[in-house]
From TrEMBL:
InterPro entries given in the database record: ATP-dep_Glu-Cys_Ligase-2, CP_ATPgrasp_2, UCP005522
UniProt name for this protein: Circularly permuted type 2 ATP-grasp protein
PANTHER family attached to this UniProt entry: BLR5612 PROTEIN, SLL1039 PROTEIN
Taxonomy, superkingdom: Bacteria
Pfam families: CP_ATPgrasp_2
Domain Circularly permuted ATP-grasp type: 78-453
Gene3D superfamilies recorded: 3.30.1490.270, 3.40.50.11290
C-alpha cells in the first residue's frame, strides 16, 4: 500500500504528514501499511464492518429514509497522539472541568460570579437549561459533572482548541471502546509495536465514581435509558453490561416516601445511584414535562432530599450552552486564578449588536450555531451555504439573537482515511471522556473518540451528518 495523497494538496495540519514526509509517531504504522496490498486493507475494512454489525454496534438516524439503524462507520487507519500532547490535553480538560463544576455549584447557590460581574445575569436567566428547580439543591460531594465529553479540534497552527463542552448526557464512549476492540483484531501487531495506552478500564472508572457518590459501602446502581428507540441505546446496554448493573427504563422504577425503588421479581429494591441517559425535561413528569412517559414521577423530590444521586446532575445544560461557553476561560481565571491551558475557539455572541453586524458582514467565513442544538443540527457553514440558507439564517438570528453564536471557520486537522482503496485526507475532531469523582479527582482514559468527516472537504464530523470514527492511540 504505497498510495499517499499529495502533501501539497493539504491546507491545514495533517496528523500523519508534514511537508518533509511522515511524522515520527506514524513511522511504524506507515511501515505496516506499506507492507499491505490494497486487497489486504479492503479485507481489514470488511472485517471491521462485520465486527460492528455482528455485535450490534449501531446508532440511529431518524431523518434517514433508508432505515434508522446503521453501523457506525469505522476507518482502520488510527489517529495517533503523543504522550506529551496527551498530557497537555489532559491537564487542560481537568482544569476546565474543575472550573465548570464550581460554576454550576455557584450559579445554583450564591451566584457570586454574577454578582462580581464576570458573567451577565441575563445570560444565565435566558438559558433554557438553567433550571430554577435546582436553585439551592445540594448535590452529593458538590459534583455536578460526573461524566463529560469535551470536544477538541486541532487548527492549522497545530494548537488544540476546545470546541464545546458536553456536560449533560454525552454519548460515544462505547464506540471509543469498541474501536479499540476491532483494532485488536485487525492490527494487533501495530498496537503492540507502538505501545499504545489502554482504554478498556473506562467502565471500571465509571463504576467507581458512581459508587463513590453514595455513602453506602455497596450501593445499588442502575443505568436509566429512554428505551430501545433512543439513538444511543446500544451504548446504554453496553455500559450497563460492562459495569454489571441493571439497565432500567422509567417504568421499572417507582418512588415511595421520597425513596427510589427498582421493581424486581423479589419485590422492591432501593436504588442509590442512577446513571441517567434521559434528558432533564423528561426525567420527572411531576416537575417538568407532564406528558413524559420516560421518566419517574417523584424522582426530583427524592433527589432534592439526597436519597438518590443522579449522574449527571440535573441542570448541567446551563454550563454547556454555547453562549455560556464564551465565558469558560473567565470561569477558570475567576475560580482557579489560572490561565486556561486549552483555548476556546474565538466566538461571537450574536445578542451583542457589534458582534452581530460583524458576523453578518463576514458570514461566508463563519460557522453560525444555535446555542442549544447538537449533533451538527442548527448550524450554518458559511463557505458552503446557499444564498437562500444565508438569508434564512440571518432572519433567524435577527428574530432571536440570544439563540445563536458564530465562530470563524477553522480548518480541522486531517488524518488519512482508506477511501476507495487510497489514503485520502479527512477532517477530524477529538472527544476525550472525563470522569469526576467524589474527592475532586478527575480520570480520563488516554485517547477518546476521534470523529471523522468522511465526506470530502466536509468539516462536520457528527455521525448523524455522515461522519465516522477512528481508533485513537496515545503512544509514549
Amino acid at each position: 500500500m504505497r498510495t499517499v495523497y499529495p502533501i501539497e494538496t493539504l491546507t491545514g495540519w495533517d496528523e500523519m504528514f508534514t511537508a518533509e514526509g511522515v511524522r515520527e509517531r506514524y513511522n511504524r504504522i506507515m511501515a505496516t501499511l506499506e507492507n499491505l496490498t490494497i486487497e489486504d486493507l479492503k479485507l481489514k475494512h470488511v472485517q471491521a464492518s462485520d465486527f460492528f454489525m455482528n455485535n450490534g454496534i449501531t446508532f440511529t438516524v431518524y431523518s434517514d429514509n433508508e432505515g434508522i439503524e446503521r453501523i457506525f462507520p469505522f476507518d482502520i487507519i488510527p489517529r495517533i497522539i503523543t504522550r506529551e500532547e496527551w498530557q497537555h490535553i489532559e491537564a487542560g480538560i481537568k482544569q476546565r472541568l474543575t472550573a465548570l463544576n464550581r460554576f454550576l455549584k455557584d450559579v445554583y447557590h450564591d451566584q457570586q460570579i454574577i454578582k462580581d460581574g464576570i458573567i451577565p445575569g441575563e445570560l444565565i436567566e435566558s438559558c433554557p437549561h438553567f433550571l430554577k428547580e435546582m436553585i439551592g439543591v445540594n448535590v452529593p460531594h458538590d459534583v455536578y459533572v460526573h461524566i463529560s465529553g469535551i470536544d477538541l479540534i486541532r487548527g492549522a497552527d497545530g494548537v488544540f482548541y476546545i470546541l464545546e463542552d458536553n456536560l449533560r448526557t454525552p454519548s460515544g464512549v462505547s464506540y471509543m471502546l469498541e474501536n479499540r476492540e476491532v483494532t485488536k483484531r485487525i492490527l494487533p501487531e501495530s498496537l503492540y509495536q507502538n505501545k499504545v495506552n489502554g482504554v478498556s478500564h473506562y467502565p471500571l472508572f465509571l463504576q467507581q465514581i458512581m459508587q463513590d457518590m453514595s455513602d453506602k459501602e455497596a450501593p445499588t446502581m442502575v443505568v436509566l435509558t429512554p428505551g430501545v428507540y433512543n439513538s444511543a441505546y446500544y451504548e446504554h446496554t453496553f455500559l450497563a453490561k460492562q459495569m454489571g448493573v441493571p439497565l432500567v427504563e422509567g417504568r421499572d422504577l417507582v418512588v415511595q416516601n421520597d425513596m427510589v425503588y427498582m421493581k424486581t421479581t423479589g419485590g422492591l429494591e432501593q436504588v442509590d445511584v442512577i446513571y441517567r441517559r434521559i434528558d432533564d425535561e423528561f426525567i420527572d413528569p411531576l416537575v417538568f414535562r407532564s406528558d413524559s412517559m420516560l421518566g419517574v414521577p417523584g424522582i426530583m423530590q427524592a433527589y432534592k432530599k439526597g436519597n438518590v444521586c443522579l449522574v449527571n446532575a440535573v441542570g448541567n445544560g446551563v454550563a454547556d450552552d454555547k453562549a455560556v461557553y464564551v465565558y469558560v476561560p473567565d470561569m477558570i481565571r475567576y475560580y482557579l486564578n489560572e490561565e486556561p491551558i486549552l483555548p476556546n475557539v474565538p466566538t461571537y455572541r450574536l445578542e451583542n449588536e457589534g458582534d452581530r453586524l460583524y458576523v453578518f458582514e463576514n458570514i461566508r467565513k463563519m460557522v453560525v450555531k444555535e446555542t442549544n442544538q447538537s449533533g451538527g443540527y442548527g448550524m450554518l457553514m458559511g463557505p458552503s451555504a446557499t444564498d437562500e440558507e444565508v438569508e434564512k439564517c440571518i432572519a433567524a438570528v435577527k428574530k432571536s439573537p440570544r439563540s445563536f453564536i458564530a465562530q470563524p471557520v477553522i480548518t480541522l486537522s486531517t488524518v488519512p482515511c482508506l477511501i476507495d482503496g487510497k489514503l485520502q485526507p479527512r477532517h477530524v475532531d477529538l472527544r476525550p471522556y472525563a470522569l469526576c469523582g467524589a474527592n475532586g479527582d478527575i480520570k480520563i482514559v488516554p485517547g477518546g473518540l476521534t470523529r471523522v468527516a468522511l465526506k470530502e472537504g466536509s468539516l462536520v464530523v457528527n455521525s448523524s451528518q455522515g461522519g465516522g470514527s477512528k481508533d485513537t492511540w496515545v503512544i509514549d
